[in-house]
Amino acid sequence: MACGLLIADSGPLIALTRLELLPQLCARFKEVWLPGKVLDEVTRDMRRLDAQVLAAAVEQGLLKCVEVTAEETSAVLRFGLDPGESEAIALACRQPALLLIDERKGRLAAQSLGLAIIGVVGVLIALRAEGAITEAKPYFDRLAGFGYFLSDELVRQALARLGEH
């Protein structure tokens, strides 16, 4: 079931790509946008497989790079976020969408602006609920294995919600 528009920040986009879930993410949304600064961040080191996969996804039109003006970004500078997060939030302020963001400070900033947010945990829950993946626990294990921080309590709650332990 395709939902509307998703605007992605770099951290969760890289994580989902490393989990080999980018096709499922793109299938779940009518469009997935990333701001120019996010594209710069996710393709900074083209020796990395995730950077190559994301660059190819942009080339193939699975992901759409959208430029954000300095004027738009200036409205979120007060939060002291990195450039990619700032542009992702600014783009979500311009265009109503679900914002894929995990970093705590960025999530708080987005929520304070009234934006709808989702993180890697929410995506895994949704993919599991829709049958796109059969279990979430192996994905949580892989995230931990490559150093993607999620609190133990958050993972426990998500697995309990899904009936996995």
Give an overview of the whole structure.
The chain is of the alpha/beta class and 165 residues long. It has a single domain, classed as 3-Layer(aba) Sandwich (Rossmann fold). Helices cover 54% and strands 13% of the residues. It is built from 10 helices and 5 strands, in the order βααβααβααβαβααα. It has a 5-stranded parallel beta sheet, with helices on both faces. α7 links the parallel β4 (98-100) and β5. α3 (36-42) runs antiparallel to α6 (83-94). The longest helix has 12 residues, at 83-94. It starts with a strand and ends with a helix. The model has no long low-confidence stretch (mean pLDDT 95).
Instruction: Quote the distance from N terminus to C terminus.
Output: 27 Å
Q: What's the CATH topology name?
A: Rossmann fold
Residue fraction in strands: 5-15%
User: Which range best describes the helical content: under 10%, 10-25%, 25-40%, 40-55%, 55-70% or over 70%?
Assistant: 40-55%
**Count of DSSP-assigned helices:** 10
Task: Label the CATH architecture.
Answer: 3-Layer(aba) Sandwich
Identify the CATH class.
Alpha Beta
Biggest sheet character: 5 strands, parallel
The number of domains: 1
Q: Which structural class fits the helix and strand makeup?
A: alpha/beta
Chain-averaged pLDDT: 95
Using only C-alpha atoms, the radius of gyration works out to 15 Å
The named CATH superfamily: 5'-nuclease
Q: How many DSSP E strands?
A: 5
Features:
165 residues; five-stranded parallel beta sheet; 13% strand
Question: Helices and strands in order, then pairings?
Answer:
Layout: E1 3-8, H1 10-18, H2 22-28, E2 29-35, H3 36-42, H4 49-59, E3 64-66, H5 70-74, H6 83-94, E4 98-100, H7 104-112, E5 116-118, H8 120-129, H9 137-145, H10 152-161
Parallel strand pairs: 1-2, 1-4, 2-3, 4-5
Helix pairs in contact: 1-3, 3-6
